Amino acid sequence: MSKKAEESEAAEKGGKGKLIIIVVVALLLVGGAGYWFVLKPKGSTKVAKPDPGVVVKLDSIQINLADDHYLKIGVALQATKKAGTELDGSKALDQTIDLFSGQDIHQLARRAYREKMKKKLDQRLDKAYEGEVMGAYFTDFVTQ
Fold first, then answer.
1. Coil vs helix vs strand at 13
2. What's the pTM?
3. What whole-number distance in Å separates Cα of residue 61 and Cα of residue 94?
């Protein structure tokens, strides 16, 4: 056999070895990912929902909307049990004013848009009250 033939045969064997190693590593990665997404216990990722406490009704306020319209809105806060029986409503009123000021009256007339705004308010309240408020209810919602 010539020297060139021996080198090409050795290169083929080395190439096959590398291919086998790559395939084995790929199979291990796929198997690990499969375990992670399919077989991993689900209990450790579930977050317990807090127990509801008192509902704190705040006085209605008027907010200026776009084009010289206004919104009279009343909000009640659903507190968690850990919040206790008293809750300062000033943060909620501030977030409500900030969120609804300058909104278009025609958009607020649409139910889907009001629900979207309520979800945004709930998110803001959760952050402002550091988990002591579970959500808000609209007790008044009048536009003019």
1. helix
2. 0.65
3. 11
